[in-house]
Amino acid sequence: MKLFGNWKMAQSRQGAQSFAADASGYRPDPLVESLIFASCLQIPEMMERLKDWSFGAQDCSAELPGPYTGQVSAREISEFGVKDLLLGHSECRAAGQSEELLKRKLERAKEASLRLCYCVGESLQEREEGRLWDCLSRQLENLENCSAEFCIAYEPVWAIGTGKTASLERIAEVHLWIQAKFPKVPILYGGSVKPENSAEIMGLESVGGLLVGTASLKWESLEKILELASLEAQKRRQRAK
Ligand code: PGA
Q: For residues 92 and 61, is the Cβ–Cβ distance under 8 A?
């Protein structure tokens, strides 16, 4: 079971330090792969403070290192000992990242041996106009010949940060559809995941983990989701026996 947090640009330095202080006693469950995508500035300090945890970057440049003011290269991310990268988040797509640009970012990430969590998801308009599968097919195209290690996070745009979660039927429908295209790839769900709804979402067989935004900012709520992820991972291990 994967439990990934996404701090976006919403975590202050002080907030990150409080999180680290609160989480310092936690011993990660080997059955749950926990990781936080943090801002590049916060990652080194977090890695130092929480040595048992993994931290990933939230984006990378599509370019090789060079004269690109303001950008962070995949190579540099990896030089800091970071192994994971979030790509294709809908907030980045909304800010203008096209499939073509993401394809180049994927190449850079692969060259730097970064593992990817690649996000896809439809807007409300796309869903209402019956364009869900077209949208997902287009967004997933870049992964078809991708030789980097990756998992996929399905995050319906209308569920991100809105308090609205997709119904279990909808999540299962989309996850099974993605799974048919990428049978061996773990598929996460994201979009207003919180302690109250995480157990039932993880209870879906096709859900390989969660990508948690707002509820990952504070240790108190993330800890609850981690406990539920441990329980679900144990159930799955029992069933597999
Ligand atoms: P949310 O964010 O949990 O706050 O909806 C999820 C995400 O954007 O990854």
A: no
